[in-house]
Amino acid sequence: MSTTAIVSIRPAYLDREQTGAYVSLSDTTMEQMIRAGTFPKPRQLSPKRVGWKVSELDEWCENRPVSDLPPPRNTGVRRGATAGRQGASSGHPAP
Fold first, then answer.
1. Which residue stretches of 47-88 are H helix?
2. Among residues 40, 58, 60, 38, which one has the least CA distance to residue 50?
3. Where are the beta strands (DSSP E) in the chain?
4. What is the distance, to the nearest Å, from the Cα of residue 25 to the centroid of all Cα atoms in its chain?
5. Where are the domains of the chain?
6. What is the pLDDT along the chain (95 residues), one digit of tens a residue?
7. How far apart, in whole angstroms, are the C-alpha atoms of residue 59 and residue 78?
């Protein structure tokens, strides 16, 4: 009887969407922090592709200050997300 080993390879780089999910930040927040010099800059992987180095993201995460406050209850909920679904004048949900 033979056995099969499952090998998990950790990626060296992540794309924008993966990076945001990895560090729990939105694209906009990442862009603002990159411009401010408080978040790792992406690396050029090919002429038309960039990625964030996982080891740099890990280092950034480890160096974040510890918060004394819990996150607010509405963290991750967009304001006005239902506004587009409501009727323009009645305030009732659209059919």
1. 54-62
2. 40
3. 13-14, 43-46, 49-53
4. 4
5. 10-65
6. 678 889 999 999 999 999 999 999 999 999 999 999 999 999 999 999 999 999 999 999 999 999 888 877 776 666 655 544 444 444 445 55
7. 29
Helix axes 16-23, 54-62, angle to 10 degrees: 20
Tokens representing residue 61 in the block: 């995460």
What is the rounded distance in angstroms from the CA atom of residue 20 to the CA atom of residue 26?
Answer: 6
Cβ distance 30 to 18 under 8 Å? no
pTM beyond 0.85, yes or no: no
Query: Is residue 41 within 8 Å of residue 3, measured between CB atoms?
Result: no
- Strand-pair partners of 36: none
Q: How far apart are CA 51 and CA 13, in angstroms?
A: 5
